[in-house]
Design brief:
The protein is of the alpha/beta class. The protein has 19 helices and 22 strands. Strand 11 and strand 12 form a beta hairpin.
Length: 562
């Protein structure tokens, strides 16, 4: 296989050659091959590798952790290294890069993380030439999702398409990523240390899935934490299962079921019996069973809508839409065409919910806190697929789930102080933290910031929080109920009101945890932290920003945001 530049040169030479010249070239090449075949194999020419660039695109912090860990090892081997987040990487530098590693995660719907989107779009939009690039890509993902590691796979293929040369096979990693990631990097490091350019590439596992353990759980409690008059419904679910293993900070993954009413409406629209058996990707399955337990039919991504349009030979605007609405607006012509549509549908993606319990407090139980997602489409009130499904589950119903590890959101040593900032359902992991610290008699101090709309209707886990405060487990509690006064008050306002003491805790080594919505909550909280450090510590804004970045590097500022 020729690199792109050599292939282009050869193609140009052949296209302009006469018949006689082609015959001569054929003889010349045959002779060269014969001569080289008789020579003993020689090692690839050694070149000195003095620098490498490592970039990462992350949502949860895992890719950043790997990239910085790789960088440390590279430096220890005497190679200069530049590390950058993809949202800060200068795209104009890419054609001039030599050795280049990409560590990138994939979001649930196959999308790049926000920090990597600019880089991703640049690769596919601009006609850059990367003939100097020698690269490797390691992709992080979750094999429970249908588009496992898609972003990393796309970047790996496109870098080659633009002329780059792989120094390592694409490595896909599941949620338990660290062992295989380190193995892959040791092989890459061997290439860098040996300085081989164009020699054998390290052989890595194309995919090494760990296989998630699925638990067969039973719902034993499902209560609405909000009082009458609230605009919200937040369900506290308690689920029992044998042999449970998890830690505070983890989540559970649940695959919801589609509503029978929606399924029946789809089948009525196309005039097909629910018991009909069809071929779905090589297997015989009943339509009703497929729609109930396996296939996403509620909010189809744009790529599926586009494929649907191809099947029915009609232009359809790229938008997220349910299968029922799609069939009503753009009907299929017959049952055969409908079966084609079924075969392009993707599996239902699991939804992750932060665990709100400790095994040390509840043996063989896991608790979650689920706010029903309510929104409007064409003035019609609708609910999120999974939150709506979980909210209506009654006691003794069976529920399958798996544990999603989150090693980036763990409690520190028992004697360390922690600051927990979690409005709304962001309280979930902090309930787990407090139960764990109570059960293990941790000596570190605990400070909680919680907020919601109204004190009387939306104070989630109010009794438990008050009890923890009265017993001394919670050293401090600050609450913010945004709609109990004319001017809205949020958790960041309570932080600023306690700026001096908050800074003292941080400066004395406290760990800061933020959980809840990414925008605007986590952004506003981060800005409040920066302002507190600026004013209380006597720093400039830039110094305060660097201070927070250092806390993240040290693992003392941790986020679980969505």
């Amino acid at each position: 296989m020729l690199v792109k530049s050599k292939l282009n040169a050869l193609t140009a030479l052949v296209s302009d050659a006469t018949y006689d010249e082609l015959i001569w070239m054929n003889g010349f090449i045959s002779g060269a091959v014969s001569v080289n075949a008789s020579r003993p194999a020689v090692a690839a020419a050694s070149v000195k590798i003095d620098k490498i660039t490592i970039v990462y695109g992350t949502e949860s912090g895992n890719s950043k952790k790997l990239a910085t860990g790789f960088a440390t090892k590279v430096k220890q081997n005497g190679i200069a290294v530049k590390v950058a987040s993809l949202d800060q990487y200068r795209l104009n530098d890419l054609p001039n890069e030599g050795y280049f590693l990409v560590v990138v995660s994939t979001q649930g719907d196959g999308e790049p993380p926000a920090a990597a989107k600019k880089f991703y779009d640049h690769l596919f939009a601009d006609k850059v030439t990367l003939s100097n690039l020698k690269y490797g890509v390691i992709a992080l993902g979750d094999s429970a999702y249908p588009l496992f590691c898609k972003t990393g796979a796309d970047i790996d293929a496109q870098l080659q398409q633009l002329g780059g040369t792989r120094i390592a096979t694409l490595q896909k990693c599941d949620t338990d990523y660290e062992p295989i990631a380190n193995e892959w990097f040791e092989q890459v490091l061997s290439v860098l240390k040996n300085g081989t350019d164009g020699g054998p590439r390290p052989q890595t596992h194309a995919v090494k899935k760990v296989g998630k353990k699925t638990y067969a759980g039973t719902v034993v409690t499902n209560i609405n934490l909000n009082d009458k008059g609230s605009e919200k419904k937040t369900h506290h679910l308690e689920i029992t299962a044998e042999g449970l293993v998890y830690e505070p900070g983890d989540s559970i993954g649940i695959i919801p079921e589609n509503q029978p009413e929606t399924i029946n409406a789809i089948l009525e629209t196309v005039g097909i019996n629910a018991d009909k058996i069809i071929q779905y990707r090589g297997e015989e399955k009943s339509l009703f069973g497929l729609f109930k337990n396996e296939l996403n039919i509620v909010y189809l991504p744009e790529r599926i809508t586009k494929q649907y349009g191809t099947i029915i030979n009609q232009e359809i605007p790229e938008t997220k839409i349910g299968l029922l609405d799609l069939l009503k607006i753009y009907p299929v012509k017959d049952a055969q065409q409908f079966e084609q549509v079924v075969n392009i549908l993707e599996p239902i993606t699991p939804r992750l919910y932060s665990i709100s319990s400790s095994l040390n407090a509840h043996t063989d139980e896991v608790h979650i806190t689920v706010c029903r997602d309510k929104f409007y489409t064409n003035s019609e009130e609708r609910y999120g697929l999974c939150s709506g499904y979980l909210g209506q589950l009654s006691e003794n119903i069976q529920l399958n789930f798996y544990v999603h590890k989150n090693n980036q959101f763990r409690l520190p040593d028992s004697d360390k102080n922690i600051i927990m900032i979690g409005p709304g359902t962001g309280i979930a992991p902090f309930r787990a933290f407090l139960e764990e610290r109570d059960a293990t008699r941790a000596t570190g101090k605990n400070w909680l910031f919680f907020g919601d709309q109204h004190f009387t209707t939306d104070f989630l886990y109010q009794t438990e929080i008050q009890n923890w405060f009265s017993t001394g487990l919670l050293t401090k509690v600050n609450t913010a109920f945004s709609r109990d006064q004319s001017e809205k008050v949020y958790v960041q306002h309570k932080m600023l009101a306690n700026a001096a003491e908050l800074y003292d805790w941080i400066h004395s080594g406290a760990y800061i945890y933020i959980c809840g919505t990414k925008e605007p909550m986590s952004v506003d909280v981060q800005e409040a932290l920066q302002l507190i450090i600026t004013e209380q510590g006597g720093y400039t804004a830039e110094q305060a920003k660097a201070y927070l970045e250092q806390l993240e590097e040290e693992g003392r500022l941790l986020k679980d945001v969505y």
